[in-house]
């Protein structure tokens, strides 16, 4: 099992609902306002019914933003197809959905060989038992708290038992939540044990991104502190 660093809060705004024609400007502003990393939603129109962007755009963004941590959330039917191009584009964490993948260990190994960290994502209908045997292969487990494919959906609080199970059994694992996460739902996420917080609309559409990000961080850090005491 890989050695893990002490748990810390990481806020990764999803740029899905930003002005994609201004992707660099919007992304840089999020980082300037306190984001720890950028969560880049890649959709293929097949695994989910929407299309966003692929590795050429990520590579252009990397050419402008040299050092920030990039996570690509691969909502695609064939994640293996994009490992090399995304590694070449400068992605740090390659998060893919386990549902369409037949050989999860092989995909994890290829991601590592390409020099990226591994994230495993679960749709709302997917149970923890489906990922349990693969957790040691991953750096992050991402629990979807909406159906993947569109921004701005309502948070599903009934996903929190998955987060609780992961935190209880893997105290130092990075556990992410994605979908409908913002100031009104962050407490449920933090108390369940999530430390990687993907927040889209709540941050992007805010007049004061810095204070929203700081507020999310404060709630999560106080929960982590309680766990460590």
List keywords for this structure.
229 residues, Aldolase_TIM, metal ion binding, globular, cobalt, alpha/beta, Ribul_P_3_epim, isomerase, eight-stranded parallel beta sheet, TIM Barrel, single chain
Level-1 CATH class name = Alpha Beta
Query: Which percent range describes the beta-strand content?
Result: 15-25%
- Assembly type of the chains comes to single chain
Query: How would you describe the shape?
Result: globular
CATH topology: TIM Barrel
Our measurement of the CA-to-CA distance between the termini, rounded to an integer number of angstroms, reads 25 Å
- Can you count the helices? 8
Which percent range fits the helix content? 25-40%
Would you give an account of this structure?
This is Ribulose-phosphate 3-epimerase. It catalyses: D-ribulose 5-phosphate = D-xylulose 5-phosphate. The protein is an alpha/beta fold and 229 residues long. Helix content is 34%, strand content 19%. It has a single domain (10-228), classed as Aldolase class I (TIM Barrel), CATH 3.20.20.70. Strands 1-8-7-6-5-4-3-2 form an eight-stranded parallel sheet. Helix 5 runs parallel beside helix 6.
Give the helices and strands, then pairings.
Blueprint: E1 10-13, H1 23-32, E2 37-43, H2 55-64, E3 69-75, H3 83-88, E4 93-97, H4 104-113, E5 117-122, E6 140-144, H5 160-169, E7 174-178, H6 186-192, E8 196-199, H7 201-204, H8 209-228
Helix pairs in contact: 5-6, 6-8
């Amino acid at each position: 099992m890989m050695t893990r660093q002490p748990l810390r809060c990481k806020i990764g705004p999803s740029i899905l609902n930003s002005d994609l024609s201004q992707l660099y400007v919007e992304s840089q502003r999020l980082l300037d306002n306190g984001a720890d990393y950028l969560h880049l939603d890649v959709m293929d129109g097949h695994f989910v019914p929407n299309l966003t962007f692929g590795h050429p755009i990520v590579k252009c963004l990397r050419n402008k933003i040299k050092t920030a941590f990039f996570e690509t959330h691969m909502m695609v039917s064939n994640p293996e197809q994009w490992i090399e191009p995304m590694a070449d584009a400068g992605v740090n964490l390659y998060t893919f959905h386990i549902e369409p993948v037949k050989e999860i260990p092989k995909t994890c190994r290829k991601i590592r060989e390409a020099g990226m960290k591994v994230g495993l994502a679960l749709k709302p209908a997917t149970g923890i038992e489906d990922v349990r045997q693969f957790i040691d292969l991953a750096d992050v487990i991402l629990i979807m708290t909406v159906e993947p494919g569109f921004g701005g959906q309502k948070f599903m609080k009934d996903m929190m038992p998955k987060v609780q199970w992961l935190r209880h059994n893997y105290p130092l694992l990075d556990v992410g939540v994605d979908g409908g996460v913002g100031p009104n739902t962050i407490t449920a996420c933090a108390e369940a044990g999530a430390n990687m917080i993907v927040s889209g609309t709540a941050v992007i559409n805010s007049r004061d991104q810095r204070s929203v990000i700081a507020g999310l961080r404060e709630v999560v850090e106080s929960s982590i502190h309680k766990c460590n005491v």
